[in-house]
Design a protein that fits this description.
- The chain is mostly helical.
- Helices cover 75% and strands 0% of the residues.
- α2 packs antiparallel against α5 and α3 packs antiparallel against α4.
Length: 163
């Protein structure tokens, strides 16, 4: 028993030491570029999909819809948070040496501008259906560029515990 525990502890310490050496040898900007990029971009898309696209499709932005103003303001705030996340993913793409990330960095920059402009409008209570359509077009364009680069973006539903 003691030997097995000390062996496992030795392996754990060895793995931590290797991880620290690996992290020290590689600059922080380059560590898991694609994973970090996907995580930040995924958060941005979640905000867009959950608080803007879904309410838009459910006609919650339409005149006379219940809680319309609150929905529009929430959508604007969500888009402004999404802008931050897209900017972080853009920075990762621009600093990365990965050819795929460098290839789609321009599309990510365009998405940043689109989210920012529409987010400011929504946050101030202004709604134009064409703005939402342009955002959907921008996200589709990024998805097409990713697919062309060999990394298609897939929407994967995840079951939440308790539901």
């Amino acid at each position: 028993m003691k030997i097995a525990r000390s062996f496992r502890a030795g392996i754990a310490v060895s793995l931590v030491a290797v991880a620290l050496l690996f992290a020290a040898a590689k600059p922080a900007e380059a560590f898991l570029d694609k994973t970090r990029f996907a995580a930040h971009l995924g958060i941005a898309y979640f905000c867009f999909h959950h608080w803007v696209l879904k309410p838009y499709e459910e006609q919650q932005f339409a005149p006379g819809a219940p809680h319309r103003t609150a929905t529009i303001v929430k959508g604007g705030a969500a888009l402004l948070f999404a802008v931050h996340e897209v900017r972080v993913s853009s920075k990762i793409a621009h600093l990365s040496k990965d050819p795929f990330l460098q290839k789609i960095a321009g599309n990510v920059d365009a998405l940043t501008g689109s989210f920012g402009a529409v987010g400011q409008k929504l946050k101030s209570g202004q709604f134009n259906p064409d703005d939402i359509k342009s955002l959907l077009s921008s996200t589709t364009s990024l998805g097409s560029a990713a697919a062309a680069g060999g990394a298609p973006i897939k929407d994967i539903p995840v079951a939440l515990p308790g539901k």
